[in-house]
């Protein structure tokens, strides 16, 4: 993948709209700022850009990603390229850690097909009220208002929705009645780089993204793909988190690394991205997440890694502002 300048190939009136572009094995991805365009103009701009960029000999396919600036809380996406790496656990505990540090934070569970935040927060079975056809986030008991598709459908029910429906559901969750003093909105994205992620970067462009991976090589490869999506959309990667990093035997205290150790930090150095920290493989984290008792809410050493990552995110937000 390489950054490529398409400005010379586009009509003069459209070139200034392009905020980022990459070319990867013949696929061109162009990000345009569509904040000042109406719906008809967006369609015309997309068609014209695809046609113009597609004329290049080194381009076989063109994808246009439209973004628009949005007032309201700062949106931070938490993503991974692979499922099962603890992304939802990190998002929930990071939100709680931020709240403990005085940040007014909300959380959207954007994993439409496999929501888990109601379990982690202990709000299973609760239904959000609505006002003006928009849901009102559930307050919960850890100072983090949150919304999930798990609050809106029957628990355990499988959703067989096509991409546009999932994207529409994401919009309803993000455009809910969040408190006016909400400063940060964490988005727990599903694994991969599918329709929900594309809707996220097109319609609700995040200020930044945190990537989560276990130390395994396969997980890192998938995390790199997620990073490429954010990069192509002009969304800065705030940093990488290594989860399930080190297991301390409860009997003897010896630390082992069943998934490896240090690979995520090494990848961050290689990509010149910040390394935000490690979360250990600990049964207390698993038990707390399964029983609605997130460890970041405890006055216990198990909360410290989450508080440290929250501190790094706070510093990034302060520098951004």
Give an overview of the whole structure:
This protein is an alpha/beta fold and 321 residues long. The chain has two domains: 2-67, Fe-S cluster assembly (FSCA) (GMP Synthetase, Chain A, domain 3), CATH 3.30.300; 74-320, P-loop containing nucleotide triphosphate hydrolases (Rossmann fold, 3-Layer(aba) Sandwich), CATH 3.40.50.300. It contains nine helices and 15 strands. The mean pLDDT is 85.
How many β-strands, per DSSP?
15
Sequence stretches where pLDDT stays below 50 over 5 or more residues? none
Give the % helix.
Answer: 25-40%
Shape: globular
Sequence of secondary-structure elements: EEEHEEHEHEEEHEHEHEEEHEHH
User: Mean pLDDT, as a whole number?
Assistant: 85
Count helical runs: 9
Question: Order of strands across the widest beta sheet?
Answer: 9-6-10-5-11-12-15
CATH class of the largest domain: Alpha Beta
- How large is the radius of gyration? 20 Å
CATH superfamily of the largest domain: P-loop containing nucleotide triphosphate hydrolases
CATH topology of the largest domain: the name is: Rossmann fold
* Integer tally of domains: 2
The CATH architecture of the largest domain would be 3-Layer(aba) Sandwich
> How far do the termini sit from each other?
30 Å
């Amino acid at each position: 993948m390489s950054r490529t300048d398409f400005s010379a190939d586009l009509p003069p009136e459209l070139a200034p709209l392009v905020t980022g572009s990459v070319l990867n094995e013949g696929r061109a991805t162009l990000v345009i700022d569509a904040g000042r365009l109406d719906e008809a103009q967006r369609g015309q701009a997309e068609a014209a850009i695809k046609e113009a960029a597609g004329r290049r000999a080194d381009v076989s396919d063109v994808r246009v990603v439209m973004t628009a600036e949005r007032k309201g809380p700062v949106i931070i996406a938490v993503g991974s390229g692979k499922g099962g790496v603890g992304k939802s656990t990190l998002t929930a505990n990071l939100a709680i850690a931020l709240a403990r540090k005085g940040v007014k934070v909300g959380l959207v569970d954007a994993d439409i097909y496999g929501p888990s935040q109601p379990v982690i927060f202990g709000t299973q079975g609760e239904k959000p009220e609505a006002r003006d056809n928009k849901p009102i986030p559930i307050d919960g008991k850890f100072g983090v208002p949150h919304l999930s598709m798990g609050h809106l459908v029957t628990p355990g029910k499988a959703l067989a929705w096509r991409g546009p429906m999932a994207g529409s559901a994401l919009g309803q969750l993000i455009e809910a009645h969040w408190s006016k003093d909400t400063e940060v909105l964490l988005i727990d994205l599903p694994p991969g780089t599918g329709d929900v992620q594309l809707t996220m970067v097109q319609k609700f462009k995040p200020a930044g993204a945190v990537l989560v991976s276990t130390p395994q090589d396969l997980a890192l490869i998938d995390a790199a793909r997620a990073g490429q999506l954010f990069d192509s959309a002009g969304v800065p990667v705030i940093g990488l988190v290594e989860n399930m990093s080190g297991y301390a035997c409860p009997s003897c205290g010896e630390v082992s690394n069943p998934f490896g150790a240090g690979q995520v930090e090494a990848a961050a150095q290689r990509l010149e991205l910040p390394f935000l920290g490690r979360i250990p493989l600990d049964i207390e984290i698993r038990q707390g997440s399964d029983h609605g008792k997130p460890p970041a809410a405890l006055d216990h050493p198990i909360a410290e890694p989450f508080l440290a990552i929250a501190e790094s995110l706070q510093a990034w937000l302060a520098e951004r502002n």
